[in-house]
Structure formats: C-alpha cells, structure tokens
Amino acid sequence: MKVILKKKVDGLGDTGDIVTVADGYARNYLIPRDLGTRADEGDLKRIEHERKLIRDREDKVVKEAQHLASRIDEFSCTISARAGEEDKLFGSVSAADIAQALCEAGMEVDKRHVQLEEPIKELGVYSVPIDLGRGVAARLKLWVVRE
Predict the structure, then answer these.
(1) Which of 45, 60, 75 delimits the end of a domain?
(2) How far apart, in whole angstroms, are the C-alpha atoms of residue 96 and residue 98?
(3) pTM of the model
(4) Are residue 54 and residue 77 in the same domain, yes or no?
C-alpha cells in the first residue's frame, strides 16, 4: 500500500514522503497513529505538484544567491576604524560591521553569513568568506583603513 507520511517515521521516511508499506502496517500502525494517510491518485498528483513548486522556489532562491555572490566577488568594501600605533584597532571589525557595510552598498547579507573566525583587529586588506547558503559562497575583498 502506498502511504503519504504526515510525520517523520524513523527508518521509513520524512514528512511528505510517499512510501510503500505492507497493508497491515499501514492499517494497524501508521494510519491509526496519524503518522500517514493512504495515497490515492489525487493525493499523488497534488504531492507531485507541490514538490515541483518547492523545487521551482528553491531554484529561484539559488539563482538569486548566485547573483549576489557574483556581485560580492566583484565588490571591494572599505571600513574605516580608529587605530593606534602599529596599526592596531581600538575596537574591532565584526561580522555585523561587514554585513552593515554590504547592506549600505545595496547587498542584503545577514551577519550570520559572514564567516569570520575572529573579529578583525588590525588595519589591512582581508579576504572575507561569505556563505550565502545552499552551497553558494563568495569572497569579499575588505579594506580596513585608518579613520
């Protein structure tokens, strides 16, 4: 019997998966516990249509992320900060500062996407990795200059 899972079932599948199970397992375990429902032709067509819509949305998001990544790769960002002798910053440049500079340049990037191992504490030129999710990454050329 084909069953559409309403909830994740260990060893069987995730929510929305269409699985083939023994008739007794479906009638006596999955359906009474509201873990799944019998899949008829109408349900199968509806599920396939919803999956196609989800794939299309995901493709659109990936294309937008790739476009943003190409813009970030070509972009050079400058952040000015107060620095003392020996080019040490009084504070530091954090992921939030970099995300804000990118947003001011018209590129919406969340601070969680900026992959700094630790805040920048010296003047100089840095290559900052930015992970946009879904396997899309970019590198930002960042100049930290004296204010």
Answers:
(1) 60
(2) 5
(3) 0.70
(4) no
Residues 55, 10 within the same domain: yes
Structure token pair of residue 56: 């299309």
Among 15-19, 106-110, 127-131, which stretch is predicted with the lowest mean pLDDT? 15-19
Each residue of 6-17: pLDDT tens digit? 888 999 988 878
Are residues 140 and 73 part of one domain?
Answer: yes
Distance of CA 46 to the CA centre of its chain: 27
User: Cα angle vertex 91, ends 125, 72, to 5°?
Assistant: 35
Note whether 54 and 72 are same-domain residues.
Answer: no
Residues 55 and 95 in one domain: no
pLDDT score of 70: 96
Give Cβ neighbours of residue 26 (< 8 Å, ≥ 6 apart): 1, 3, 36, 38
pLDDT band at 54 (very low <50, low <70, confident <90, very high): confident
| Maximum pairwise Cα distance, the chain | 78
Which of 98, 120, 117, 119 is CA-nearest to residue 109?
Answer: 98
Q: Domain containing 136: what range? A: 64-146
Tell me the HSE value of 146 on the side-chain side, using a 13 A CA sphere: 6
